[in-house]
Amino acid sequence: MREVILNFPKQFKIGQERAKEAKLAGIFSKIILCGIGGSALPGSLINDLDLKISIPLFVHRDYNLPKNATKDSLIIAISFSGNTEETLSAYEQAIAQNYPVIAISTGGKLQELAQKNQRPFVIVPNDCLQPRFGTGYLVGTVLKILANCNLIEDQAKTLDELARNLNPESLETKGKELAEKLVDKVPVIYASNSFQSVALMWKIKFNENSKIMAFWNYFPELNHNEMVGLTNLKAKFHFIILKDETDHERTQKRMELFTSLAKDRGAEVELIDFTGKTKLEKIFSNLILGDWVSYHLALAYGQDPTPVEIVEKFKKALS
């Protein structure tokens, strides 16, 4: 997994190349990205990137298609394994209703269905161990599809520059140091509304890599409800606040006040600044840091960060 983290920046270009022929003609009213877990993350990230997509993008994490799906929706079905039953049900429904749909996976049943029905399909590499570590492949692929469908400007140069600027190795020490502070604590990750997808992904990395419970939320929403939990803390929470200079000034003030309140009640708080020239660079540099934190926390707990055995057992029981 350490090698996967170090090689992460190479994924964007490969994802773009894999999707160079994937497109559908037509005038679309919306984009619906169907996926679960790590396969849905590209949609959440792209919504936070402020890319000026000409139509709204919705992320659907459930069975079947959402109620707002129509014949002029561009449906993108992502299942990293190709066998995720929720995504397969959405894809099969899209095929049955003859909706425009493009599939993305490393193979599996989704590939079989796409080939059988002669629908556009993109196969991404399966060398990153788990879907949560293939975000670069999937983001690169989805952005290329959107460009091919004339919904955004081509992002090839932007992603090439991003890959050059990301330096995973330089973030490992900081990640390891934070991991040491988190031993025997429950991480709670907060960010502004503009970066909420990053907080969500940190939470997922703690769950799947470190094998622990973790939680996330975003400002200002959490100040109106979740913050009341500080009144009666029942666990050793360690709050991680991801903040950026572009956050609304009142949101920044909320972060400062929350930090004081949490510390006054005996909780630990870590403030982490986003770094980078662009929002894209800020997001992925921060996510790489989260990778390192969860990776080293897994090692501190004597856990192999790669497998998700409980998920596999659950799937087997469900079948």
> What composes the largest sheet?
5 strands, parallel
Sheet with the most strands: spatial strand order:
2-1-3-4-5
Order of helices and strands: HHEHEEHEHEHHHEHEEHEHH
Distance between the termini: 29 Å
The number of E-state strands comes to 9
CATH superfamily of the largest domain: Glucose-6-phosphate isomerase like protein, domain 1
CATH level-1 class of the largest domain: Alpha Beta
How many helices? The count is: 12
Structural class: alpha/beta
What does the overall shape look like? globular
How much strand content do the residues show? 15-25%
**Radius of gyration over C-alpha positions, nearest whole angstrom:** 20 Å
> Helicity level, as a percent range?
40-55%
Commentary on this structure:
The chain has helices at residues 2-6, 11-18, 41-48, 85-96, 108-116, 135-148, 156-165, 168-182, 196-210, 249-264, 279-300, 309-318; strands at 30-34, 57-60, 73-78, 101-105, 121-123, 186-192, 215-219, 237-243, 268-273. It has 319 residues and is an alpha/beta fold. The protein has two domains: 2-163, Rossmann fold (3-Layer(aba) Sandwich), CATH 3.40.50.10490; 166-300, Rossmann fold. It is globular and about 60 Å long.
How are the SSEs placed, and which strands pair?
Blueprint: H1 2-6, H2 11-18, E1 30-34, H3 41-48, E2 57-60, E3 73-78, H4 85-96, E4 101-105, H5 108-116, E5 121-123, H6 135-148, H7 156-165, H8 168-182, E6 186-192, H9 196-210, E7 215-219, E8 237-243, H10 249-264, E9 268-273, H11 279-300, H12 309-318
Parallel strand pairs: 1-2, 1-3, 3-4, 4-5, 6-7, 6-8, 8-9
Helix pairs in contact: 2-6, 2-7, 3-6, 3-9, 8-11, 9-11
